[in-house]
Amino acid sequence: MTSNTPAMTDLERLRHSTAHVLATAILRIWPEAQFAAGPPVDSGFYYDLELPHRITPEDFEKIEAEMKNETKANHLFERIVVSREEALELGRRGELAALGSRSSPSRFKLDIIEGIPPEEEISLYRNGSFLDLCAGPHVMRTGNIGAFKLTHVASAYYKGDERNPQLQRIYGTAFKTRKELDDYFAMLEEAKKRDHRKLGKELELFTFDEDVGPGLPLWLPRGAALIEELEKLAKETEFEAGYQRVRTVNIARESLYLKSGHLPYYKDSMFPPMTVEEKGNPGGSTEAIPAADRYYLKAMNCPHHHKIYAALPRSYRELPLRLAEYGYCHRYEQSGELFGLMRVRSLQMNDAHIYCTPAQFEAEFNAVNQLYLNYFKLFGIEKYMMRFSTHEAARLGEKYVDEPELWLQTEEMVRGVLQRSGINYVEVPNEAAFYGPKIDVQVWSAIGREFTIATNQVDFAQPKRFGLTYKDRDNTEKTPLCIHRAPLGTHERFIGFLIEHYAGNFPLWLSPEQVRILPIGTDAQLIEYSRAILNELRSKLVRAEIDGSTDKINGKIQRAEQMKVHTMLVIGRRDMEANAVSVRVHGQGNVGERPRDEAVAEILEQIRTRRA
RNA sequence: GCCGACGUAGCUCAGCUGGUAGAGCAGCUGAUUCGUAAUCAGCAGGUCACGGGUUCGAAUCCCGUCGUCGGCUCCA
Is the CB of A557 under 7 A from strand B? Predict the structure, then answer.
């Protein structure tokens, strides 16, 4: 609210105005409330405030009633331009974000005024007796706000800095019409059904257990099937693209992470080390052995991969060298950050490191971006955004390795790749990895949450730290560039995303249970026929099951549908006699009788081509 | 990590202002020849997250711990 009239959509304008109405209502009930910022957000608006009374959802009704009074009064939103001195004076008298003069100054508003650049105009908005520091814009009158509702309370640090006081943040949403508001809440209800945590439980994909630990998912057989399919996809794709697979261990000595530079930059995100005392020598030698050593659980694969690079002398002829691994990493995320599968402490990354010469960089970096696009096409992901994160010169040596020229040089290379390939991207300063600039890919889950699903990072720092070199054409040793990439992110987050993306209705190739055979009745001959089909499918590596329960056929169908089994083969006497099966597809219902061989062939083809 | 809310059978949930727990589904047993979204009956299943405290008495009140969720900072 401190910049010049920012561009706002009509809906944002309406919601921002609702935030003012919210503040008006709160002051009617709690006149001592102090307000900070109240902007519109994607799903509505919020206003941050400081108040001794803890606002709970039970207070919402009362607050909404006051808000209603304010919209009924249909006050004009009046814009008033003041001088900096006038604004400060009003703030000192407590008249900003207030209904009139108060004993205590409007402390947050005063602080906000301090932050407004001197050349910028300072504006206030008044609706009825409520006056607030605000850049606007607003709707004409409070009565123009069609329908609103408060949704939840949360806490937030002032200006998002944990050293600042914690404020109460009240969230709400608003629309032009009642119907749009109702539709919005109906949509939220629908979205809840897609929540990967709910579906993960219902479809028996994964579980968390207190004894195992927070943020450490256990994959049930049906979830593990999803993992295996993704790995198969990645292995095939990467093999074709010239990657080589490697395998590395889960722990390493402290010295590895000191060398990589992770420890100073990344320590907070790693599990604390374990101290190992080497006792004696199994070989029986009496020679002294280093006493104690600290080992860390690996939080990333790169240092291990660098060691694999270093294991052999490298020639320019071998480059680009692409080392890939689906390694397990462990990161000590803050407890408050954990969120279903989307934010966990143990993760399996679709990781690879590409070592290349500067001349090869553009082609390699671009190939990785293209890999993303191919994957997105396969999964039908249409909405995504590439974020190009760069360094901040002021934080060299602290957040970023102190190599000013290399930063500028590699950032320019990445920018060039992006521009020449015509990919849509946004550039965000001060968000790079400590070792180089990067591209993150953001996607939106069905619930509307934004996630970083993939990453493509340049690393000019670690190869040097590890002393990685290659013998170039001119017989000199040179340091390669390294690209860290994870197009499918981690299994945990990617599968969490896919669950919501498909609402649990996976395409056949991914489906945890691809086919379920449902015999009608328990006739011995029929069971034998059904089992023969089951065995045939399994011999072709199809994840097929048979429902051998004594339920009636409707009951069997119900259970299979509830588990979202992709293809159901209903088999009765009629089918058996015709050497056929009746095919039912989840989401489509009965698609009719098919000759057995044809039905099997069709299933295999659909899996082979990973058809949606 | 910080602020707040929540934590009852495998799952979804009931249990009012304290009087030592209930349903449906799933599970088990038995019966049921059933053609495209639930066949019937019986049985079994809970130290009400964990640990303290208040009380004659606590799933219900208080404190602590753990976990989950909504946010804040952070990230794949």
Answer: yes
